[in-house]
Amino acid sequence: MLRTALRDNLDNEFLALFVYGTLKQGCENHEVYCKGALSVEPARVRGKLYQHPGGFPMLQIPVSDIVAIGTADHLADMTLQTRHQMDSTDSNIQPDFEKHENYWRLIQGELMIFDDPGPRLSAIDELEGFYPGQTSLYRRVLTPVLTHNNSVVSAWVYASEIDIENLRPIEADFWTC
After folding, report:
1. CA–CA distance, 9 with 6 (Å, rounded to integer)
2. Backbone angles phi, psi at 101, to 5 degrees
3. Of 7, 54, 17, 28, nearest to 176 (Cα)?
4. How many other β-carbons are positioned within 10 Å of the β-carbon of residue 125?
5. DSSP letter string over 107-151?
6. pTM (predicted TM-score)
């Protein structure tokens, strides 16, 4: 359904965002930053969760799953997301979510769709400490996301930009707020 919505609305830019921490429904930053989402559904990405000393989670994504790194040009990022969505929809290239080796897990979170990508990304980039071209806490990356009905979509996610070696791994496949 999400693929169809994205494909049928090429004239409109939609933001697909995977969240796994404080932006999830019921968590502290959801109301301020994610209110007005067009849809919210359970989803998963390949990765590994870590606990930041500040009490929030950080996600490490396999380098092979990173399609693009976000920039300060949010509209160009949305065009890239839409183009990649079309490419992955029209081809049979899909990541093997069952192949997550011993290290990578399928991390549970929520896939949110927004119709205001520019202002939304500006606010969330600032919240997440993502400053393109500068040292950042997170980086926004475009990656494949497995939806609740087992389709694959391209979505942005905030992945750890800092060294995770000193962070405590979270053994669960999800973070609870």
Report:
1. 5
2. 45, -165
3. 28
4. 21
5. EEEEEEEES-HHHHHHHHHHHTT--TTS--SEEEEEEEEEETTS-
6. 0.87
> Which sign does the torsion angle of CA 158, 6, 108, 150 carry?
negative
The CATH class of 2-169 is alpha beta
Count of CB atoms situated within 10 Å of the CB of 67: 16
Distance CA 37, CA 154 (A): 17
User: Where exactly are the structural domains of the chain?
Assistant: 2-169
Q: What is the rounded CA–CA span in Å between residue 144 and residue 123?
A: 23
Q: What is the pLDDT of residues 59-73, one digit of tens each?
A: 999 999 999 999 999
Q: Residue 14 has which token pair?
A: 């939609």
Model pLDDT for residues 82-109, shown as the tens digit of each residue: 888 765 554 444 555 665 566 789 999 9
Alpha helices in the chain (DSSP H): 2-8, 30-34, 74-90, 117-127
